[in-house]
Amino acid sequence: MSKSEEIREIVGWLDGFSAAVWLLPSDKVSEEYPAMYEEKVARLRELLAKED
Length: 52
Known about the structure:
By secondary structure, the chain is mainly alpha-helical. The protein is built from two helices and no strands. The chain has helices spanning 3-23, 26-49. The two termini are 14 Å apart.
């Protein structure tokens, strides 16, 4: 997967996360999503810091 494809995938996931925060019960979001969110944000930061 290319860098730009991976960035698009992560941004899409983060967009879905924002919808989940509004739509899912708060206990489900707070239990399952924080770790995944942190992982995705960390990876996005890594990708954005890389030079092509």
